[in-house]
From TrEMBL:
One GO cellular component term: extracellular space
Protein name: VEGF111 splice variant
Signal peptide start and end residues: 1-26
GO molecular function: chemoattractant activity; growth factor activity; vascular endothelial growth factor receptor binding
Keyword tags: Disulfide bond, Growth factor, Signal
One of the GO biological process terms: positive regulation of mast cell chemotaxis
């Protein structure tokens, strides 16, 4: 009897796996509607999308608060606008020239002492520019 139930369990698991695999291939991912896999992205679009600018980036909270190792943060990373992209010269780097702070509610958990939702401040990059790298 156990043998039959085991085979039935594995059969149902395989059926669900293949059904989900078929659905994930059939349904386009979010944002895929605009470009087909065989379609070529034009140079000007590639150039514009790769320029130095502020874009949403997931930043680990410990990267911003390295001294708070006694806590576990939920979520462990936050979405922040940060400078990224390419400059036309290797001697230049994409850096922030205007920044501002944003405050977010983050759950801080301390082992054996509980959890609390606290407000934490993070720096966002508002404007970015290609500037000379520091030596």
């Amino acid at each position: 009897m156990n043998f039959l139930l085991t085979w039935l369990h594995w059969g149902l698991a395989a059926l669900l796996y293949f059904h989900n695999a078929k659905l994930s291939q059939a349904a386009p991912a979010q944002g895929d509607e605009e470009k087909q896999p065989s379609e070529v992205i034009q140079f000007l679009e590639v150039f514009d999308r790769s320029r130095c600018r502020s874009i949403e980036t997931m930043v680990d909270i410990f990267q911003e608060y390295p001294d708070e190792v006694e806590y576990i943060f939920k979520p462990s990373c936050v979405p922040l606008l940060r400078c990224a992209g390419c400059c036309n010269d290797e001697a230049l780097e994409c850096v922030p020239i205007e920044v501002h702070n944003v405050t977010m509610e983050i759950m801080r958990i301390k082992y054996h002492q509980g959890q609390h939702i606290n407000q934490m401040s993070f720096q966002q990059h508002k404007t970015c520019e290609c500037r000379c790298e520091k030596p």
